[in-house]
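User: If you would, consider this record:
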Amino acid sequence: MPVARLTSFVLLVSDVAASREFYTSLLDQEVTSDLGGVNVTFASGLALWEREHARGVIHGGAVEARDGDQHVEVYFETDDVDALAERLRARGVTFVHDVVTQPWQQRVLRVLDPDGFVVEVAEAMDDVLRRLRADGLTVEEVAERTFVPADAVRAVLEPGA
């Protein structure tokens, strides 16, 4: 049994309602608990906590923001990066960058949530492997392009082989 298991991660936000709306309406996150609007938990493990309330609970009172308080990226995967990009654009969400292909061939976009946290949304790596294989690449070529070990590529592309 591991000493610790990640069960959730929390963003300390300035406006829980605005952040809840962002994550539920744009990224389809399902709320599993809402503690009086100061703490919201989603089925995915993401949670939101009103920043000043959280700092009071954690530190016993008001604490000044420290360097690095917002150096966080929240990562999601989607089946259709392009459709989600259009949905986000239509809602006026601020883009860090539009859909790009990373050096490991994964298509991703990055936006800012209401508190300025970077939210990355990407195609799943298993889908990347399948896409490259469908483009005619060998297992070894897929591994080389994605930096995923050939055995791991084979496990996805040739299950049970």
